[in-house]
Design goal:
The complex is a heterodimer of chains A (99) and B (479). In chain A, 32% of the residues lie in helices and 4% in strands. With 99 residues, chain A is mainly α. In chain A, strand 1 and strand 2 form a beta hairpin. In chain A, 19% of the residues are buried. The radius of gyration of chain B is 21 Å and the shape is globular. Chain B has 15 helices and eleven strands. The longest helix of chain B has 22 residues. By secondary structure, chain B is an alpha/beta fold. Chain B has a domain of 244 residues: Alpha-Beta Complex (Amidase signature (AS) enzymes), CATH 3.90.1300.10. Classes of the chains: A mainly alpha (99), B alpha/beta (479). At the A-B interface, helix 1 and helix 2 of A face helix 9, helix 10, helix 11, helix 12 and helix 13 of B.
Chain lengths: 99, 479
């Protein structure tokens, strides 16, 4: 196995997913299968190859800073309009700091 | 009952409106009624937007009445994939998490198509957060292929392809990250275009994998798809990754003459595909030869590594992009959560479907401590090799043609149990997204079972023009 159920639980923690126990076993199998396919990349020698994080153009396409000036934005009501719980113009969440 | 859009094109709708043969409002009403009646067959629309459509149509009619130019897409019934946000119109991304999400703003592509006189009829079904190749990962049920109702329409933009094939919209917008426009276009027998990375603003496109995401058009013909792209393409200051390169007049270049163009056939794309698909593509290449194209074999040697590199890069980016669905801002929060941590964990567990969870997990894993170099960095290097393959090929040829998918539309349920076999559906389309070059699918005939096959045409960065010229000339010659 390339990934154990224990590792799946650790990764689920990192990803903030409360996987059920039956999902953990299934996920381990699926990820194992995908990681085995991904191992194919090790056939390639990539010494000296630059990593490509973005699409590379011949032309200059990166002059992307705009003028820093005030513009109208969403109203507060619109910004919190889709919140499951909002109050007084703020997002409301469970208590963060215990006293 | 046949569709009110049967036999119409963007051009003929405009002509009909200007000649007062029909009004935009009449066409919108008939199209909405037809869509409502026919949609249960395919489940392609998730939401119809009659008020918005009729308002847009009346504005077109008012412009015509007052002698103003009604716009390049005047009165054209359009559908929009439900990962593209529409102000005041529910946008679900095919996810239970966003079942009630009503965006406070419009995507730039939506603003532009409405400014051009387009009439949005509704939002189309898709795989959850555009993750899938069959439209079976939608929380709102699969889409059925209008060509063969027991088969998938392809994915992830399955609904956007189906509505055009079913004629419940004339054209539509989809999104493509690994093949999600071209593959459904090929499965449904229509044209679908993935433009150059940055050609169309992604402002308002729900992010899946930001270095790979594209918005692009579907149409029954290349001309319709090109006209829709023309309306939405170009620099947008709301998207820092949108390109400054000027947008040429696509339609003016479609004169049917493609004599002397050099076309490359990548041998790696003819390995392991179904023979009937190969036969249709080979027959299309013969047509291109009779039109005067010079066809030669080329190699894109890193093709076999594309799926592996893609599923590292795309899932890594997705794991970051989907972190925002945490129960705070987007409509859904687990009812059982009493702590902040449980709110995150349980909302996400209950809200995401299996494929999203699988990709979030894989992406989190490949980015986690100790694995970054072995997976993510390695994949980015391989991505560079794949992009370099194309750059070298384009020193010898003007365009590359290939199949879109190794096989035609498969049966609903056939591949859902095996993620790898589903991922390998995209083996011929993923490469174009990794390199960021324009590619499209144009219909090239049917199999013995009457299933459509798509021909993929790939050109250099920002050379959509050559791609459209080839597709249009092929369409004219093969009809």
């Amino acid at each position: 196995m390339k990934i154990t159920e224990q590792e799946v639980r650790r990764v689920a923690d990192l990803a903030n997913l409360a996987l059920r126990e039956d999902e953990v076993a299934h996920m381990a199998q699926d990820l194992d299968c995908i990681l085995t396919h991904i191992d194919k990349l090790n056939e390639l020698d990539t010494t000296g190859v630059e990593p490509m994080a973005q699409v590379l153009f011949d032309a200059e396409e990166t002059a992307t800073l705009r003028e820093d000036c005030e513009r109208p934005s969403l109203s507060n009501a619109e910004a919190v309009g889709n919140a499951p719980v909002a109050s007084g113009g703020y997002y409301k969440v469970p208590r963060v700091i215990e006293r | 009952m046949s569709s009110p859009l049967n036999g119409l094109t963007i051009e003929s709708i405009r002509a009909g409106l200007l000649a007062k043969k029909f009004s935009a409002e009449e066409l919108a009403r008939q199209s909405l009624a037809y869509a409502e009646a026919e949609n249960p067959k395919t489940n392609a629309y998730l939401t119809l937007s009659p008020e918005r459509a009729l308002r847009a149509a009346r504005a077109v009619d008012a412009k015509i009445a007052s002698g103003e130019d009604p716009g390049a897409l005047a009165g054209v019934p359009v559908a929009v994939k439900d990962v593209i946000v529409t102000r005041g119109l529910r946008t679900t991304c095919g996810s239970k998490l966003l079942a009630n999400y009503v965006p406070p703003y419009d995507a730039t592509a939506v603003i532009r198509l409405e400014q051009a006189g387009g009439v949005i009829l509704g939002k189309t079904n898709c795989d959850e957060f555009a993750m899938g190749s069959s439209n079976e990962n939608s929380a709102f049920g699969p889409v059925r292929n209008p060509v063969a109702l027991d088969r998938v329409p392809g994915g992830s933009s399955g609904g956007s392809a189906a509505v055009v094939a079913q004629e419940t919209a004339l054209v539509s917008l989809g999104s493509d990250t690994g093949g999600s426009i071209r593959q459904p276009a090929s499965f449904c027998g229509i044209s679908g275009v993935t433009p150059t990375y940055g050609r169309v603003s992604r402002y308002g496109l729900t992010a899946f994998a930001s270095s790979l995401d594209h918005i692009g058009p579907f149409g029954k013909t290349t001309r319709d798809a090109a006209r829709l792209l023309q309306a939405i393409a170009g620099r947008d200051e709301m998207d820092a990754t949108s390109a400054f390169a000027p947008v040429p007049d696509y339609l003016a270049a479609l004169d049917g003459n493609i004599e002397g163009l050099r076309i490359g056939l990548p041998r790696e794309y003819f390995d392991g595909l179904e023979s009937e698909t190969g036969d249709r593509v080979t027959a299309a290449v013969e047509v291109l030869k009779t039109l005067g194209c010079e066809v030669r074999d080329i190699g894109l040697p890193h093709t076999p590594y594309a799926v592996a590199a893609y599923y590292i890069i795309a899932t890594a980016e997705a794991s970051a992009n989907l972190a925002r669905y945490d129960g705070v801002r987007y409509t859904t929060r687990s009812a059982g959560a009493n702590t902040l941590s449980d709110m995150y964990r349980m909302t996400r567990e209950e809200g995401f479907g299996d494929e999203c969870k699988r990709r979030i997990m894989l992406g989190t894993y490949v980015l986690s401590a100790g694995y970054y170099d072995a997976y993510y960095l390695k994949a980015q290097k391989v991505r560079h090799l794949i992009a370099r393959d194309f750059a070298q090929a384009f020193e010898q040829v003007d365009a590359i043609v290939a199949p879109v998918s190794p096989f035609p539309a498969f049966k609903i349920g056939e591949k859902v149990k095996d993620p790898i076999s589903m991922y390998l559906c995209d083996i011929y389309t993923i490469t174009g997204d990794l390199a960021g070059i324009p590619c499209m699918s144009v219909p090239c005939g049917l199999t013995a079972e009457s299933l459509p096959v798509g021909l993929q045409i790939i050109t250099r960065h920002f050379d959509e023009l050559t791609m459209f010229r080839i597709a249009d000339a092929y369409e004219n010659a093969s009809h």
